[in-house]
Amino acid sequence: MKPLSKEFEETLENIDITKIPPEEEPNRQYYFIKKMREIIKQEEEMLGRPLTCKSVCIGCQMNARDSEKLLGILNEIGYHETDSEEADFVLYNTCTVRENANLRVYGRLGHLNSLKRKNPHMVIALCGCMMQEPQVVEKITSSYRFVDIIFGTHNIFKLAELIFQRKVSQKMVVDIWPDTEKIVEELPSDRKYPFKSGVNIMFGCNNFCSYCIVPYVRGRERSRKPEDIVQEIRQMVQDGVKEVMLLGQNVNSYGKNLDPRITFAQLLRQIEEIDGLERIRFMTSHPKDLSDELIQVMAESKKICRHLHLPLQSGSSRILKIMNRKYDKEQYLALVDRIRQAIPDISLTTDIIVGFPGETEEDFEDTMDVVRRVRYDSAFTFIYSKRTGTPAAAMENQVPPEVVKPRFDRLLKEVQQIASQVCSRDLGTVQKALVEEMDDHDDSMVTGRLSNNIMVHFPGDASLIGEIVPVKLTESHGFYYMGVRAEE
Ligand code: 5AD
Ligand code: SF4
Prior knowledge:
By secondary structure, this protein is an alpha/beta fold. Helix content is 37%, strand content 20%. The chain has helices spanning 6-13, 27-47, 61-77, 99-118, 134-143, 159-169, 214-218, 226-238, 264-272, 292-300, 317-322, 329-342, 361-374, 401-422; strands at residues 52-57, 80-81, 89-94, 123-128, 149-151, 173-175, 196-200, 202-203, 222-223, 243-247, 279-283, 307-309, 347-354, 378-383, 430-438, 445-450, 455-459, 468-476, 480-485. Helix 2 packs across helix 6, helix 9 (264-272) packs parallel to helix 10 (292-300) and helix 13 (361-374) runs parallel beside helix 14. It is globular and about 65 Å long. The model has no long low-confidence stretch (mean pLDDT 95). Bound molecules: 5'-deoxyadenosine and iron/sulfur cluster. The site of 5'-deoxyadenosine (5AD) has 12 residues, from strand 13. Residues 205, 207-209, 212, 214-215, 249-250, 286 line the site of iron/sulfur cluster (SF4).
């Protein structure tokens, strides 16, 4: 188990668990964390062994950050993290942005059931985006009765309380909130890396792109207060974090619901001033409202990384309109020009959907045209997936798979060819890399991330992990470099 923070322990000491639970958060959760510690301790004494937990995360960086918070709570209540799903508590944080993510979860549930038969103490919990869909919850509560706890995206902070409920009631606990105004601060979290961390700056999405289920499962946009964000990052820096990734479905609309209003660019300026913080990343930026102010802040910044993820989705103005993206092909290309003019060494990456309803060969050629003109460092390419409840799912002109697949293959080939040329542009130069881990294939090498998000492998040992060091890029392998350490 990770060492617990002294302040957190002091707070818990002042909570009286012989009384009824407090109403206000986060004290209510502290109360249940303390209650659960007693229960876990008793179970451990009874079994004569520690209780273990395994947390599995599917999906985006938001989910990854949520999983760190969930694991933080599991750790605080006394579960010991293990690598195996043969654990006493197994938690799946799910994604539903495309159908194959859902299928993966149903696939795993059968396996979990067989493990639970062998270990009656096992608790299975499911949370995340997929659980915000009523038909999913219905299916699980009727056909997967061995699941113990189901909760959604809005109440992850309640994990200790939900486990407590499960332990005392011996019944399946289902707690899904349709939406929330609430942002609960100051709960534990267990970061995957000591030197870098995701930081939520906002939750939810108001954009309703017609193919996308996110606004339905993550709710309306809510921004965290700038002072809470800055305070959290300051604390992280004190704990050794050098790089933060600011997270939001659309960071460009950060601050619109706050009083006083604040723009994302202004927030970045405040974060830039945090001493000891070395790198700032963010995602995702919606092209419709990426401001000139943001471009300027990025150009002037010494800490904001030279990388922008700018989802295109389609290059066809006609399709973009039906997707409700609120920009057209020309506006997107003009935006890319403005960004490149201000920040010439920026690396651009994107998301593209192939086979949106009604997509013609001509529309697809527009996408290929944008890809050839922008020349992305990399692109995540997706086959359109029909999501129940979204406007696009009800469109009649769905494109058949035999048409979509060849387009997808053509796009992928183009994207990869361009990326392998673009990604070698810094060959021969010295760039700073944040060393993240030992090389997978060679234990005399380490792997670092460059400002523009490309990885570099170079000779080094474990003492470099978490350090930012200059590296000469000696070989380009398309998506990554090989290098050697250079002088400071
Ligand atoms: N089908 C395919 N891809 C999708 N995305 C979102 N919804 C869908 C869908 N229904 C992709 C978009 C988005 C990324 C996170 O997932 O490209 O930017
Ligand atoms: Fe989905 Fe569009 Fe919101 Fe992104 S901006 S999460 S694609 S609705």
